[in-house]
Amino acid sequence: MKRVSGSCLAGLAVAVLFGTTPGLICQANAQTFSSSYTSTAPKDCRMIGKPSELDGSTTRFCPGKSGLGVLISEGDLRETVSVGRNRAAAAREPAAQV
Asked: CB within 8 A of 96, min separation 6: which ones?
């Protein structure tokens, strides 16, 4: 059995690597991004309860994209927007808490 030197083996490995590399390189395809919006206009949403007589605060739920809904709570000149699979899930995911 003939013995192969380390440098010869390394050279063979490099030749094999560079010989197969062009077949492994794929062209990158650019992805397109887009935006979609959910209307939060009162006419497109369902009012939850009645407006508060004290400060006029309201809560409404709007159907959103991809099965998500948008919960909008207004009160004391502030608005909180939350998103979830349903109204209860959106209520547990407020955009911010104080």
From this structure: 80
Stronger pLDDT, 95 or 81, i.e. the higher one? 81
Q: What is the mean pLDDT of residues 2-23?
A: 58
> Is the distance from CB of 70 to CB of 40 less than 8 angstroms?
yes
What is the pTM for the complete model shown? 0.59
Confirm if 58 and 66 have CB atoms less than 8 A apart.
no
Residue 69 pairs with which residues in a beta bridge?
63, 84
Q: What is the length of the chain?
A: 98
- What beta strand segments (E) does the chain contain? 46-47, 58-63, 69-75, 78-84
The rounded distance, in Å, linking the Cα atoms of 91 and 61 is 10
Token digits for 28?
């990158």
